[in-house]
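Supplementary Text 2. Reproducibility record for the structural model of the 203-residue chain.

All settings were left at their defaults, and a single model was retained for analysis rather than an ensemble. We include the record here because the model underlies the residue-level annotations in Supplementary Table 4.
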Amino acid sequence: MKISLICLDTFQKSVGDYHVHNDVNAVVKNPFEKDSLEFLFYEKNYVDTVQWHLEDIVRDPVINPAEGIELKRRIDKSNQVRTDFVEQIDDYFLALYADIIASSNATLNTESPAWAIDRLSILILKIYHMREETLRTDASVDHIAKCQLKLNILLEQQDDLSNSIDELLVAIESGKKKMKVYRQMKMYNDPAMNPVLYNTKEK
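Retained model, structure tokens:
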């Protein structure tokens, strides 16, 4: 089974499971085996889905400022968790292709497989919520029509990105592309690297 199909099935299940409760604080059990790729895909997308809704909440124009700050800090932590899951997915592919010898003229891709999968995870969320907009009964006909056009484009992007992910993995398997990963090395959450944090600590 193509990796993109596994991604789509798993991401859509994760998004659907979240919307059973539609609550950023709800606890949902990952239905997949812990050591499976599907488990990682589900965890990754579920974090994305919760963060999608946190981003909506924090933009409430009448939100309590203290609550807004707490939400921003929660989003920062969520971004780190998202990155960690992407890197775990890349670790899976690094191990999978460890014995592949790249050809002498093999090239690098602009992003690793996991970061392309990350884009697909977010795209599934965009599709879900854009489809919701097309189903609203309280919106204008013009709004529905514009959202339908956007949905059509997103669905086309889903097909293109899915195919590109599968093509990249085939190219790595055949030695035409190099499997190489650069870590994100995020600094803002690290108290040893964010000057605001380490300068505050010294005071």
